[in-house]
Structures are given as structure tokens and as C-alpha cells.
Amino acid sequence: MSFLSPRPASESAGYPTRSCLQSFQFITVLSLVGWRPEEGDVLPVSKACLRMCWVEKFSDVPQCKKFFLEGTTPNLPGILVDGTVQNQNRYKPICQKYKNVYRFATLYDTTNRIPVFSAYTFTGNTTGRPKDPWMIEPGLDAEMQESVEGKSLQAVNNDYKNSIKKKDVNRGHLFPCSHAHNLDTQKSTFTLTNIVPQDVNFNNGSWREMEENVRGTLVENCKDANDQIKAYVVTGAVPNNNKVKLNNRVNIPGLMWTAYCCENKKYQKNKKWMAGAHWGKNKKGEGALGQQTLGKLEEMLNGKHKDGPVKVFPTNCPR
Fold first, then answer.
1. pLDDT of residue 269
2. Which residue in 82, 88, 90 sits closest to 59, CA to CA?
3. Where is pLDDT greater, at 267 or 227?
4. Do 158 and 246 touch, CB atoms closer than 8 A?
5. Cross-strand pairs, 172
6. What angle do CA 250, 253, 258 make, to 5 degrees?
7. Distances from the Cα of 90 to the Cαs of 28, 31, 85, 111, 125, in angstroms?
8. Is the Cβ–Cβ distance between 198 and 207 less than 8 Å?
9. What confidence score (pLDDT) does residue 268 get?
10. How confident is the model at residue 60 (pLDDT cuts 50, 70, 90)?
């Protein structure tokens, strides 16, 4: 996710050019060539710049590997195996970058127009919630001759217009802003490539409660060798197989999951690791999401992937 700097008012009203390669900051625009944008959409400037917004493999960007324990990405048969995307026309690895800093990583499904997962390192949290507008990833549509909303490979703000009234869903973060350690990282989570249509009651109820509980667990227990808070987190969504879509374009996931792994400060001398997982159906009335083992989560996800075992974290994370 690359962001482009607004030009001073004194400069020409023309679009920025290759200077975007040196400056990656957010810009809100009111018009895009070929688009009918909502407030917060990100300006696609030139194809040379846009191609820097996503990568072929997460390992292509060393700074992006840090969001995965030991630099090892999840193993999701049929989607991502040994760090390699299985269908590169459909699934796009994104190293989410904001203000010239890599913030987290996302694997995006351009067919369902939702993320497969977002991965991040939890290093503490800050309070509050930014009011910045939602952003998109223009790089996903860089190769299209006509970047029009109906053909866009990603969700756009208009897809979520009146979403509560139409489908009783709203924007649900995979990397929650409540898990971000500073304001800029919070802002970076407000991209639609990090969002799925989530049932309003589920999002505001048991899922939010789970996020708060996990945050408390990580702050209390996860410390690295320097006694600093650090945990690896991966949060994903399982698409719904029915034809019900938001705005006839965006898949409404049937299930959401999250897992973490970290060194437990109580056993640091022995390098003891701890892990936990949660999941729930994306629907109204889903009850409390009690903590489960990482092994149980992977066993559940195995039922969604038929071509091999799912592995969210490396073997040193307890199952």
C-alpha cells in the first residue's frame, strides 16, 4: 500500500509524477481518471509508481518479512504454499506502507475482493481512533486499461455505502487499529485491502471483545529478549461460498479467525513460546469467542483447504 504526497497549492494542479517513487504518503482526492471515487480513495498516478504497491512474494521486501515469525508466511494450500502464491492472477501480496514505513502485510483476494489475511507484529497499543477517510490500493488495478468501479479488482468505498441497511454489515478490520502501537500505524490500517464486510453485531460484540482480550494477553505475557512487548499475529477471513455479496461485488466472509505466537516472558530463559487462536462465524448471535489452541485452529482450517495441511506459524509455536 503506497501513499502519495499532496502537492502544495502553489504548484500546478496536474497530477504528481515519478516523485511518488520517493514519497509515499496518503492523499485524499476528489477525482480519478475513469473512477467515481468516494472520499478517501487513493490517487493512482503513473503505472511506474503503482507497480510498487504490491509485490510478487512477501520475501521480495526484507522489511515485510518481519511481520512473519522467522520470516515464514502461513501455509494455506491452494493459496499460499512455502511463501509462493499459487494463483498470482488472483491473490496479491501487499506490503502495506504508510509514510515511508512498512506497517503490516496483507494477502488480498481480487476475486472475492477481500483480504485472505493480514499479518502484523504487536508491540503494544495506543489509545483513540483516527478519523481519517478510508483508502484503497491503486496498484491492484494498475494493469487495467479502464480502472472503473465495476471492474475494479478490489473493494471501494462505494461498495460499503449503506452496507448496514442493505446487508447488516460494516467495515471489519483484520489488523485492528486497537492493536497498533502509534497513530500512524493506526491510520495505515484504514485501507479497504485490510477490511472485510463483517456482521455489525459480530464486529461490535464478541469479535471486539476478543480483540480486547487478546491485546491484554499479549501485553501481559509476550516479551522478547530485550523485555519489550512483541507478538506475531495473523488474522484471516474464510469466504462464503454462497452468492450473497455486498454490492454484488464483495464476498461476505462466512468465518473469521485470528492467531498469535510469542515468547512467554515467564519462560524466557528456556525460550518457551506460547500461542493461542480464536474464530467465529460472521453472523449475528455468535457467542463469546473463547481461546482455542493453534492446533485446533489449523485443524478447523484444514477443512477449508483440501490440498494439504494448514500451518499458520512455524513449528516452534505450540499446538
1. 58
2. 82
3. 227
4. no
5. 196
6. 130
7. 27, 27, 9, 6, 33
8. yes
9. 56
10. confident
Instruction: Calculate the CA 280 to chain-centre distance.
Output: 18
Specify the DSSP element, H or E, that contains 230: none
Query: In the prediction, which pLDDT does 107 show?
Result: 97
Cα separation of 31 and 20, whole Å? 18
Q: Please answer whether residues 80 and 116 qualify as being in contact, where contact means their C-beta atoms are separated by less than 8 angstroms.
A: yes
What's the pTM? 0.81
Contact 237, 196 (CB under 8 A): yes
The x, y and z cell numbers of residue 143, run together, are 494493469
Q: Residue 54's pLDDT band (boundaries 50, 70, 90)?
A: low
Provide DSSP, 23-65: -------S--TT--PPTTPPPP--HHHHTTSS-S-GGGSHHHH
The conformation of residue 269, written as its DSSP 8-state character, comes to G
Cell 446487508 belongs to which residue? Answer: 167
Contact 56, 283 (CB under 8 A): no
Alpha-helical segments (H) within the chain: 47-50, 62-65, 163-167, 183-188, 200-204, 206-221, 294-302
pLDDT band at 126 (very low <50, low <70, confident <90, very high): confident
The model's confidence at residue 272, banded by pLDDT at 50, 70 and 90, is confident
Q: What angle do CA 188, 136, 213 make, to 5 degrees?
A: 40
Assign 3-state DSSP to the chain and report helix, strand, coil percentages, each to 5. Answer: 25, 25, 50
17-26, 70-79, 240-249: which has the highest mean pLDDT? Answer: 70-79
